[in-house]
Amino acid sequence: MSCPTSVMDELNRIFLAYDEYRIIVCTICQFAVVPSQTEHHLRKHHSRLTHQQRRIVAQKVQSLPQLALVESDMIYPRPDQPPINTLPIFFDRLKCIGKHEDGNACRYMCRTITGIQKHCKDEHGWINIQKRGRDARDKQVHSENRL
Question: CB within 8 A of 108, min separation 6: which ones?
Answer without folding.
Answer: 95, 96, 116, 119, 123
